[in-house]
Every structure is written in C-alpha cells, then in structure tokens.
Amino acid sequence: MKRIWMAMIAALIAVPAFAAELGDDGLHKADWMRDTFKDLREDLGEANAEGKRLALMIEQRGCIYCDKMHREVYSREELADYIRENFFIVQLNLHGDTEVTDFDGEVLSEKAAARKWGLLFTPSILFLPEEVGDDQTAQSAAVAVMPGAFGVGTTTDMFTWVNEKRYALDSDEDFQRYHARRIQERQDGSTD
Prior knowledge:
By secondary structure, the protein is α/β, with parallel strands linked by helices. It has a domain at 22-149: Glutaredoxin. 42% of the residues lie in helices and 18% in strands. The chain is globular, with a radius of gyration of 18 Å. Residues 48-131 form the Thioredoxin-like fold domain.
C-alpha cells in the first residue's frame, strides 16, 4: 500500500500544474493562447486595447521541442502568469491551412505565412511592436524573434526584454547583454 501511495505522489509531482493539453490539430493549447480569426491587424488592436504585447507562436504537430517547451518551460507558474498578464499570444501551425491576414493585408494559409516570413523551425515566436505599418509583414515588423526551444531562464528573459521594450534603439543593452546580466543576477541571488 505504501508503494502505491509513493507512486501516486511521484506521478503528481512529475505533472506540471499548467501543462497544456493537445488540441485536435496536435498542437499544445495553453490557457494563455488566444483563439482569433488570425487577422493580425485585429489581433494587434485587441492586444493594444488590453495593454498587452502581441506575439505569434508558430508550432507544429509532433514537434518534440514544442512539447518540451510546454512541459518544462511554459508550465512554470511564474512564466505562465507573466505571459498571461503581459502578452496576447496567437498560435499558428507551421503546416496549417487556416487563413491568416498579414499586416500588409495579404490573406494566406498559415503554412504560406510561415514560408513568407522565412520560418523554418518550431517553436518560433515573433514578438510584435504596438504599431505596425500597412506595408509591413509580421516578420519585417517583429522587434524580436525567438527561434527554437530554450530553458526557463532564457525564455523568461526574452519575454521580459520584449515587454520592457529593451529592444529600443536608444537602449544600450541588447538581448545578449541583458540575458548575461540576468544570469549573473540569478547566480548572485540578487533577483527572482
């Protein structure tokens, strides 16, 4: 009986509190993702109205790195809360057929949009500014692109760096310097 209880406790500990479930399309569905009509101009307007930053998360069915990010990184309560509070996330399927309207007005499938934007790997995240011109695409307007899977620290730092607008031209701390400083602060115990 004791072994059964120990196994049950171990199983509960191994499952993150915020693990995203798989949708019918085979992609992870976190509660902080938005289900929209994928008109990026409208999505940007909604994000701005909520005081949040628009980000496009491109994933694909069977992606082991997407799975790793959702199980090990996005499932962390602190990061999930930060994303939920500060970002308007629209998920796109690298091989999907759902129509997307880019900022330049072009209507195309998710897979065609990913090709247009030069996205080859999943997961990838495009972080958008608050204003995007009618002549820009999501890729050309992005203030940062996060291609691939990273650990909790790097991912948290990227979301924070974008949210705090540290990418601005007048900033003297690019992401690599910001991230290095944050790593040192965490090692020193001088930050969360």
